[in-house]
Amino acid sequence: MNISRTDSQITALRAEVARIDANADAGPDPYPIAAREQQRKAHLTAIIRRQDVQHPADNEAEERR
Question: Residue 63 — very low, low, confident or very high, per pLDDT cuts 50/70/90?
Fold first, then answer.
């Protein structure tokens, strides 16, 4: 499946991954919640990586900012 996302959507996904990481660092969640959050993080990270592969020039421009 080829789903292209906008820069703002990818930025929002990166922010969500950062939020998940911050919550994990802040303290232990009950196992079911922590496991779901890590599954969500893996899913979002896969989307971000696919986007980076499909649009490497966009990623390079964002890194320079």
Answer: low
